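Researcher: Please predict.
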Amino acid sequence: MAIVAAAALVLAVGATAKAYWRKGAATAKAAISALDSVVAASRDVGQRPPVEPLPKTTGRLALTSEPAGAQVVLDGKPRGVTPLTIEDLAPGIHAFELQSSEGSIRRSVVVKAGETAEIAESIFGGWVKVFAPFELTISEGAKVVRLEEGNQILLPAGRHELHFVNRTLEYETVHRVEVKPGETSTISVPPPSSRIAVNSSAPAEVWIDGVRVGETPLVGVTAPVGTHELVVRQSSGEERHSIVTVTAKPLTIDIDFSKP
């Protein structure tokens, strides 16, 4: 009996050990499978293509000038001096101005997203050539500007407002001009017109600069401002010669043939 009992115990222990071994092996196998999955997943991550960055929604503006050191005003706001790069600008049209002792330049530029707009400007003086039918005094603000040889003026680059005056002719006008670096701009002062009235003590023909313009009494004939030769001639041949200055104001001339 003792021998049978011992044999039964041995069989029972062996069965129990075998069950535990199978359970441990299954657990180990599950752990190894999970580890393999983690390794495979890490390999997949390493093989994935890099994530593309989002496209930029702003642009840049790079400004240089000759000479350098020009003040930059962008969209009405001071931003620094050249050379200058301005970041994070909204796409679209932007207005800028470069200001220096040599003058100022106003421009506009198109900024595109993700790109750099490059601007290089030269800032130096330019010429203004004046064409006028009579002598003029030219000024800008409180400063008198004198014409040089060839009726030209050297001015800093940028916008200018020039005043033209002839006190004798009572003539005054204003011209605005954009001076571009190294270029010549022109201003033509057209001869303004005024009106002449001629009266005489006896009927007579009226001639201005050799052209017959009518008979007395002559009212409101048009003539350019300036100096003109006036001839008033009777039918008998008697005539009076005068040099008259026509100004911006209407002119009235009286001729008395009873006086020499």
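Model: Confidence is low (pLDDT under 50) at residues 4-17.
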